[in-house]
Amino acid sequence: MRSPHKTQTESESPVRREPPRYEAAPEAGLTSAQVRELTESGWSNEAVESPTKSDRQIIRENIFTYFNLIFAVLGLCLILVGDFADLLFELLVVANTAIGIVQQLHSKHTIEKLSLLSAASAAAVRDGEVRGIPVHELVLGDIVEFSAGDQIPADGPVVWGSVQVNEGLITGEADAVAKTAGDRLLSGSFVISGRCRARLDRVGADAYAAKLTLAAKKNSAPEKSEMMRSLDRLIRVIGVALIPIGAALFYNQYTVQTLGLRQSVISTVAAMIGMIPEGLFFLTSVALAVSVARLAQNRTLIHEMGAIETLARVDVLCVDKTGTITGPKMEVQEVVPLDPDAFPEADIAQTLGAFYRAMETDNDTARAIAERFSEGPAWPVKSAVPFTSALKWSAVVFEERGACVLGAPEAVLGADAGALEKLTRPYEEQGCRVLLLAQADGASPAGLEGLVLPMALLVLENPIRPAAPKTFAFFHEQGVAVKVISGDNPVTVSAVAARAGIEGAGEWVDARELQSDQDIARAVRRYTVFGRVVPNQKRKIVRALQSAGHTVAMTGDGVNDVLALKDADCGVAMASGADAACQVAQLVLLDSDFSAMTKVVAEGRRVINNIQRASALYLVKNILSFFLAIITLFAAFPYPFVPIQLTLISALTIGVPSFFLALEPNHDLVRGRFMHNVLRRAFPGGLTAIIVILFAELFVFTFGLTLAELSTICVVVMAINGLTVIYYAARPLNTAHRALLGTLSAAMALAIATMGSAFSLCPLSPAAWLVLIVLALLVVPIQMAFERLFDFCSAALAARQERRNAAKRRRTARRTK
Asked: Over 561-617, what HEC string results?
């Protein structure tokens, strides 16, 4: 997995001296002195990109922002005109920045501690011993041993042994590639089967995958989530519009309305503060940082921050049987001789013992059988064919005994496997895995040779994880469909899925029947369980679900899951699984406990739903200020607020409630686009505020009230409007929400009644009181009318979109028939 060690980039790589060239023997490797010399010369395998920002970067990025610069300039303008009372907003800016820095640093350090515990390591041969070495400490010339599940951390030729590797992550080709002595291994690929040792001759930024990474960094920016892209666009639009609107507003107030320099500056600063969503980005960053820290405390490592938003939108979860529904450890339950006269139990045990003396035990099945049959003769071996997901069998060819084959009955016998169905079916219906031990004349990766004689059936079982039924019940309640994708027999997988409580477990299909992409597209709509799936089919199933409009999370722990994990909207790996799977996944469950997914998905939904809900509070003020500034430019109305009044409104109707709402439980599935959802919640309150304040301006003009009375009236109606917005954002109301509304209402009333002068509020005349009462009574009815209007429009748009989606599904169904 990624680790928070020092990294290098093209512009900041350590100065490398000419490296000493050591040709270490495969069995001895480098010496400690040679490793130290190469490290000091700059030839270690440091990564080309850092998974986390440095402390300095976090502090710098939180302080030196565009809007902090704007706030600094606005504060300077107020100081120059002698208005020190309205500088209170600068304290909030400083507090926001400080809290953001502290929270992000805390989150970063929490993640780094977990990353150090789970950092990727490699089996390097040094001083004649095989040692686990963190991948970033490997050096040029290191001899490294690789086996199934390992991801290649640097480039180099094979110097001993042979392996099958998958280079799909770097070439896009999913086929296995055989590598023997002299063939090059490329960083970023991963080992499917076999064992070898390689000499690293390109490390760090020189490695193949590192060069691809650097090229990608030059040509594209990091992928951001839909929410963060929406916020970026909003900030850019506001940032561009802010300066010309502010300049035009000052000109209007100072030259056209002749309010004087001091009042013009104060009004302009107030308008610009109102247009800046100063807390929105801060709230989002803090909420995501808190979410990452919460997941870290639950032993979940986040590789990509955007995965949190993806999790909130997941409506289909693809899982494997082994390691997810069941525990990772398999046990041999029974051995069933098929021809006791020709192959008695003693011969079967002897054959299996000899088989696993020659074959690597590089998966859970092999380890379970080797543990049961740990003693066997050392028969001379001619060759071996490691297990792959494509073959679904492994074989050892002995010098004098021909080939012994172990694998799925239908893969070993082909069409003849039907003769064993009466024996295998009862075990498969119980959820057991059944393998066939057979004898053949010969075997190679191309297939079996000569006559194949069945010897025995091996019945293995994985116990279902105790928490699995409760976990799948949670996903069913939350509207998340579960698809089980496994390489095992579909009858077996279906039985296990049913015992785990997965809805629709009886709907299964044998993936060998799915010959085309159209077959897979039809199958994902109908079936829950997919058996006999090869790795490339897993990838196609994930893509078919995505094409059908689903947001897909994929869990896995093996090398056969890697391509699907990479393509899924959110890949979730078990830390106990293959290193390659942990590298490509966005999330890693460090305890390898699938039940933790309930907390992970719930946390994603909580944070995104609440960010959407709280964001609406910020945009109400921004919508009001933006349109009010535009109206003020073309009407002979003074801007009704001063900065300190907006500070009061922001604190009690936006800042405090937004943090309460952002951090409370919320498990609803996130639907729709982020900005659409936020604007839908914000516009009724923003439009209500605009209408009410325009009425206030007209009444003040009609009754000849003062500018100070206008400001006071507008502050009170804005406070009522803000509390009404909170009411709609907090629905459905619970005890905590009612307490929050009551506390904020009391605090606002107390501040206005007892600290009015501090917030530039003035006593009202009878005429002003009449205007205030009328406008206060209008706020709630106007906002209710806008809420109903937007509800109606949203429902109409949703119905229209559903009709389009239904038509699209019908067209897709016709094409796939």
From this structure: HHHHHHHCCEEEEECCCCHHHHHHCCEEECCCCHHHHHHHHHHHHHHHHHHHHHHHH
